[in-house]
């Protein structure tokens, strides 16, 4: 037991030690790409009609008159001290912008994953139960189609059907502009509960429903397909046949033996799904006008706001890397077959 714990500890420390290297590589790539991309943040702030004197003063103030090496060293030094600077366009601290925007994206992501599992698992069970029949093909088509639909196109389609034509849900936004948002944690559903305000809770869930259900449906195909394949594989294994021969009911075998083993690969897929969610949420949040970190990143890129783009990419990368680390360690704990 002690030897296994030491191996797991060494494996975890090795994974953790790679995080700074990965973040340094990502930070460097972001710095280089932003500098070689066309456009000038001075033009984005002052406009192309500003006189040269004003342009030079702003360039000096932003540190853009220094050499790339000096800018890079200052940039890395600030990151090490958790100083992401200020927005070039609004002068607001980048960390404050991230802390304001991140809860909206996390809340949307949590509810989306919940709906993805809520839709995907029954779909996978239904397909496996009707294997080779019409129901199986229907479940496969739904699963493949949901994953193949581009997120922005699915968002637009959902808005047209449920907001424009049926008028069931609001077309965008996170909260009615006629109410003042509850501000405790930044998570509106949780803040509404903490305030014991049922009206705020209703409105926050009402605005959250369409984007989270839509994104959850688009992700459900991953879970339905993975559950069907892995559960079908475990049901064909020798230990299941042995349990059937001993007279154990098929339902107990699925719930107590096959399903736990089938869920192990899904834990890994969940981590990858959340990572892909962070990448695919950009156009999704823009379409729904969802005030999350992806929408703020889109605005910063449009304004050539170096500091905001750098800060958002670094923090998002840190969250994704940490999540993947957690999933790797969790898999190593749950599956004794994993070598580490």
Ordered list of secondary-structure elements with their pairings:
Elements (H helix, E strand, L loop, with lengths): L1 H35 L4 H6 L5 H11 L5 H13 L13 H36 L4 H15 L2 H15 L22 H7 L3 H38 L2 H8 L4 H39 L4 H10 L3 H29 L6
Helix pairs in contact: 1-13, 5-6, 5-9, 5-13, 6-9, 7-9, 7-11, 8-9, 9-11, 11-12, 11-13, 12-13
> Which structural class is indicated by helix and strand composition?
mainly alpha
Beta-strand percentage range: under 5%
Instruction: Kindly state the percentage of residues in helix.
Output: over 70%
Counted beta strands: 0
Q: Write down the secondary-structure element order.
A: HHHHHHHHHHHHH
Mean pLDDT: 82
Output the number of helix runs. 13
Estimated radius of gyration: 24 Å
State the low-pLDDT regions, or none.
none
**C-alpha termini separation:** 14 Å
- The dominant shape is globular
**How would you sum up the major sheet?**
none
Explain how this protein is built:
- Helix content is 77%, strand content 0%.
- The radius of gyration is 24 Å and the shape is globular.
- It has 13 helices and no strands.
